[in-house]
């Protein structure tokens, strides 16, 4: 999101000269960051960046990681010593399990033992996943980096070309034609990951699917699996409500996240699905208004869960109110 955020700041800054100086300082650093991702994290040169750890996606305990994590069978001596803080703040029933945290911590120690060197990690990594959300945001950010380059008199073509390669790869490799949604790909097992989460709709945010696929995605979104327009629920649950392990309160296994909603709101507007976009906009406003600025929300009751006074919930409410 870095380039996307930088361009947004630049376009809305009250002091144009200082904003341009900021952009000039930031541009080479953003270019280097993107170059690193494609150089070190795209082992097959597909235009799809691979993740080593669920935390890199922000969707910590999402069902999209279950199969990959369950492959990691640990002996007691392989589990690093750690102390959880999240369960002292939030009910344990809402957070990732200890077994998941054992694996999270093991992966961090695995990277540290290899000095965080991608060349040493990628060939042995127990988890290597091409994630829809991360790659969608990177594709969008490359286009925004091209816009920044154009603004500064730099060559935008390398960023545009890379964004188009990523868009084609997402649309080609990560599309689930049976269900009408985008899904992750497990590079270690060499198989797609059939877990349907709200992030699977976010290629709409980057304008990746054609209109036919966008309509199929909308049909799936506007259904009891997520939250149909004629239902009493808050869009959008982070996980298919008809899945056996759906939970309305357990972190990334069902609750509504305002950041996902905001990106989906932008994507739906982009494709002309204005009625559903309007409903999401109302949700972004109503949930904090009625329940507080929580980290995530129950899609059935609207009750807030997780950390309170959460900054991105507040920031994106402001963004929606002032748009």
- Let me know the average pLDDT: 96
What separation lies between the terminal Cα atoms? 19 Å
Largest sheet: 4 strands, antiparallel
CATH topology of the largest domain: Glycosyltransferase
Q: Could you give the order of the helices and strands?
A: HHEHHHHEHHEEEEHHHEEH
* CATH architecture level-2 label of the largest domain: Alpha/alpha barrel
Class derived from helix and strand content: mainly alpha
Strand content: under 5%
Helix content: 40-55%
Total strand segments: 8
Discrete helix count = 12
Characterization of the model:
It is a single chain. The protein has 2 domains: 162 residues, Glycosyltransferase (Alpha/alpha barrel); 102 residues, no CATH class. Helices cover 48% and strands 5% of the residues. A 4-stranded antiparallel β-sheet has the order 1-2-5-6. A two-stranded antiparallel sheet has the order 3-4. A hairpin with a 4-residue loop joins strand 5 and strand 6. Helix 7 packs antiparallel against helix 8. The two termini are 19 Å apart. The relative contact order is 0.11. The mean pLDDT is 96.
